[in-house]
Amino acid sequence: MSVQSAAADVDVDLTQFFASLGRNWLRILVFVLVVTGLAFAAVSFATRHYKAQTQVEIAPRGSDYTRPAGSNPDNDKPILDEQGIATQVQIISSNEILKQVAQKLGLSRLHEFDETVDMSALNRLLVLVGLKNDPMDVPADERVLKKMREKFNVYGVEKTSIIAIEFSSEDPKLAAAIPDAIAAAYIAGQGAAKSESNTAAADFLAPEIADLSKQVRDAEAKVAAYRAQSDLLMGGDNSTLATQQLAELSTELSRVRASRASAEGTAESVRKALQSGGSLDSLPEVLSSDLIQRLRGRQVELRANIADLSTTLLDNHPRIRAAKSQLADLDAQIRSEAQKIMKGLAMQADAAKARENQLVADVDTLKAASAQAGEQQVGLDALQRDAAAKRQQLELYLTNYREAASRRDRNYVPVDARITSPALVPSEPYFPKVWSIVGAAAAASLLLAAVFTLLRELFFGRAMRPARGARLEPIDEVAMPPAACQDPSTRSEPPVANEFANRAVEASWPETVTETPAQPRPAAEVETVEVRRPRSVLGEIDVEKAAEKLIASGAARAIFVSPEGDEAAASAVLVAREVSDAGLRVLLLDLTASGAASRPMLDSGLFPGITNLLASQAQFSDVIHADLYSDCHVIPVGTADPVRAMRAADRLPIIMQSLTTAYDLVVVECGPADAQGIGRLGSDATEVFLSMLEADDEVTQAAVKLIESGYPDLTLVTPLGHEPPGNPVPGRRSAA
């Protein structure tokens, strides 16, 4: 079966789609005003809530004048990372602090924090009936804490060391007093914790200091006893006496050795000068002798006299000879003095050598004594280190004890927190924001109303139009049988169906089978018609054969025409049930004026149907009903005004296309319609049936007209001989 999608044949008329907003402006305006008014009323009667905030800074609060001497103030600063701030937030939010604030401000006496206070009669009744839990079952402290936590918020301000404390309440003064009280309780708690820590430290340090003092005395006594026992007398430079003496002898030995070497060197120089007969003027030791200096002066005077005498006297002159003899004696005296100096230097060198030997012996003795003292010094140093460590620890304990004791006695405990911004009494409530809520309600209601109107326009199909290129022949209306042509004795339709039939005849269906009686026809023409009777030309099949034909041909639509009225409409019902029993999805569309096809399937004519769908009073899901006796679905005539429904008759092809897409077969019962009336209901895969009860002239004329109007494959079907089921299918709804 080849069926085109409905989306290919229909399109959305945007002009008609959005024009629905203008047509329904009054309804939208009323809805918006009602919702806005309700929102304003709710906001006006809502309880006002006020919110206040207190800020606490976490920072060291100690003074430089109260800080211990030598301490670094930078070391007192706490590490304020995210974890540290989060820890302080949890401390502020602790139950202990909230309980203190609740007791201090008497929150348990307020109905806002304890619903048992001034409980209304309605709430008491609900508790007695059991529809509400009795709040008295919960302890009073827990009730107050629960309410406080609902109104309480603590958080750390990002990238700062400040913690914000927020609280909301119905009383603006209370909203400002509670966060201040919480901050004060937190600071007091931190101070109490520090004070307790100082007291504990002082109590701990007092006995420890006493023990350490005794240990220091014992350690120092051991040092003194060991030093005396080991004869480790201390000299200068914090060294033992043996070590100091060894150092001094070593220095003296070096000096003696240098003196001996100098004396030996000088004596050797004088000896060499005397042996070689050289001049002694170059020797410092000779020049430093006073006698030699005087003899040298005398030599100079004699040489000067000899020089003066030589100018007037000869060399053999007695005076010159006497002068030269005196000069020789002076030289001998000088050399004799030089030899004495040499002997003195030699004796000095020998004395220095003897002194050196003595010093070497003494140094060796002191070396042994110093080595023994060094071994004993190791033990002494260990005792001194132990005594020094205990003394240092004692001094530290004493410093800390004095600080802790002074803070405890003076009750001075600097807390590392302070209130930087106390809460202010709010003048405006933070909830409800009247104009914000009312504006939001107005905007939301306007949007919802507009969306609802557009969706309603879309679902009801009023905004649909045939798509460009769709082959839908423009025709008028589907003809419905008039109520006047039915036999009153055989009709049992309700008043609603009769009214619909009368209106259909009068206004809705302009082309019906009620027409002006035809003029008498010639006999020859009558005979010709008799020869072309469907019974002899087309043949006649029963309901089972008609169902088999529809299934075998794969038809998407089956149009039934019933010239004989409501009784012949049973063929469409029976065929639809047979095809549905074969396993196909089948829907029957009742287009008769009296609902003759759908009423036997629903046992009532009061269900919404095709007229409601055309009049935009219902959707597809509202007009499709289940057959009581089979799996077939049915769309009845409906209960809407047929005049209003026929104004939208152009949507009938679109509706047919949608139904064809959803079902395997759509069976349409048209009643006594003509070819023009059923033209808009057909498609490429459509079978046309003519339902008949008797082969009379009325059926024959209807069949001939349909064949001549373009339906040569017309099939005659009769419901006679078919046995319909007598009981409804189990599980289906009953007729209303």
UniProtKB/TrEMBL annotation:
Domain Polysaccharide chain length determinant N-terminal: 11-105
Record-annotated membrane-spanning stretches: 25-46, 434-455
Gene3D superfamilies recorded: P-loop containing nucleotide triphosphate hydrolases
Alphabetically ordered keywords of this record: Cell membrane, Membrane, Transmembrane, Transmembrane helix
Localization annotation: Cell membrane
Recorded topology in the membrane: Multi-pass membrane protein
InterPro entries: Bact_polysacc_biosynth/exp (IPR050445), EPS_ExoP-like (IPR005700), LPS_length_determ_N (IPR003856), P-loop_NTPase (IPR027417)
Pfam families in UniProt: Wzz
Protein name (record): Exopolysaccharide transport family protein
Lineage: Bacteria, Pseudomonadati, Pseudomonadota, Alphaproteobacteria, Hyphomicrobiales
